[in-house]
Amino acid sequence: MENTSFVKESTTEDTGFLSLNPSTLEVIGKVNNTSKEEINATINKAKIAQKLWSARPDSERKEILLKVAEALQQNAQQLAEWITREQGKPLSGPGSNFEMQACVGWTQVPASLDVPEEIVFEDETRKDVLYRKPIGVVAAIAPWNWPLMIAIWQIIPSLRMGNAVILKPSEYTTFSTLEMIKVINSVLPEDVLQVVTGRGEVGSYLTAHPEIGKIMFTGSIATGKKVIEASSKNMARLTLECGGNDAGIILPGLDLTKHIDNIFWGAFLNMGQTCACLKRLYVHEDDYEKVAKALADYSSHIPMGDGANEANVLGPIQNKMQFDKIQDLIADSENIGADFLFTGQKPDSEGYFIPVTLIGNVDNGNRIVDEEQFGPVLPIIKYKTIEEAIAKANDSENGLGASVWSDNIKEAEEVAGQLEAGTVWINQHGAINPFVPFGGAKQSGYGVEFGIEGLKAVTVPKVISIKK
């Protein structure tokens, strides 16, 4: 995943910068940089609010969060339109309306789960009970690719377990996030959830603040390392999801008619701007041409353009920084003599559009394979043996997700067990679920989100030991 906070698009003055519609490059508005004094005041208010919030009965917090889910559902259409306007993903298909339904679901599930105390040891002499207590004030650093959904992943579990949250949205998607926070705060008690806005220095000051007890971050490896450095100042607990360069392996003989749609959307969901998208596809040399043709044929029928037009299901790259990076990777692939197996039709627009592109005649060691492209460009790599495919799939600093595609589930499971990733999907990719823990291996971060384990991650364990 790309840096959420360190590059600006354009500025008006030192106190702010402009947010643009990536489909049209029209100005949406000016984003202000929250000052250090304002951040300090925000944290002080959060500390007071957190004590009152955590003192409420657990059942009451659950009830309030279910009301938040209702409010999100009632305002889903207008929030989806904001996402499309500012982030770029279309209203149709797995786009902005899809993101809003995920926001509702990922609010309902944490509100429905229980984390009861646990008797971890008991005999005739003693009894030890493990409780889960709120940490305090959580700093949430959200990205631009799924700006509302990932913010919800950070906000709702933290609130559910009695914390207060200060959210720093990406500067690229500030306004859509602010609109969602207005909706949520129409239900929540005052100051339990607050927002600070601006560039990277705002996030840096927030995460290093001595009163922050937990940091939840989704973004690039480079920025994740800065968050780790910031946490050395306050010993804040961390949940880091630092993106991935997910590999998929198609085992020989796959019936593509059953799977091609899932392979396509596994790679090109949100224009490939998803941490757990399929970003490297390994195909047996005997099936290479068949797979390339099937993907090209499927891609040729997927309409791209301004997401406000409901006929489109693919949109633009969200910002110029990412647009330029993808263009650079495409140019590098041209320079090394890669095969361009398919290049889609680019819309007639000033926006940051890059058509779906399939690249062949590349291998590990080429930039398009080794670097996370985070866009609609998929390298397809040949392999001779399964062992070779596994070794190449694991040859990455990333380890967020991976997938295996086969009509023989037993064989797929054997391969899946050898892949180095936090989640390995079989015959699907990126299929996350609010009940199922999700997190990365290697430099894709540490800690998990979702489900019971995700709720535990925003608490501190407390043992009360009783002598009988």
Automatic annotation (TrEMBL):
Where along the chain is the active site annotated? E241
Task: Give the originating organism.
Answer: Chryseobacterium taiwanense
Q: Which PROSITE patterns match?
A: ALDEHYDE_DEHYDR_CYS, ALDEHYDE_DEHYDR_GLU
GO MF entry, a single one: oxidoreductase activity, acting on the aldehyde or oxo group of donors, NAD or NADP as acceptor
Decide whether keyword Oxidoreductase is in the record. yes
Q: Which InterPro entries match?
A: Ald_DH/histidinol_DH, Ald_DH_C, Ald_DH_CS_CYS, Ald_DH_CS_GLU, Ald_DH_N, Aldehyde_DH_dom, LUC3-like
> What is the protein name for this chain?
Aldehyde dehydrogenase
Q: Which residues form the Aldehyde dehydrogenase domain?
A: 14-463
Q: Which Pfam families does the entry link to?
A: Aldedh
Concerning its family, UniProt says: Belongs to the aldehyde dehydrogenase family.
According to the entry, what is the taxonomic lineage of the organism? Answer: Bacteria, Pseudomonadati, Bacteroidota, Flavobacteriia, Flavobacteriales
Keyword Cell membrane found: no
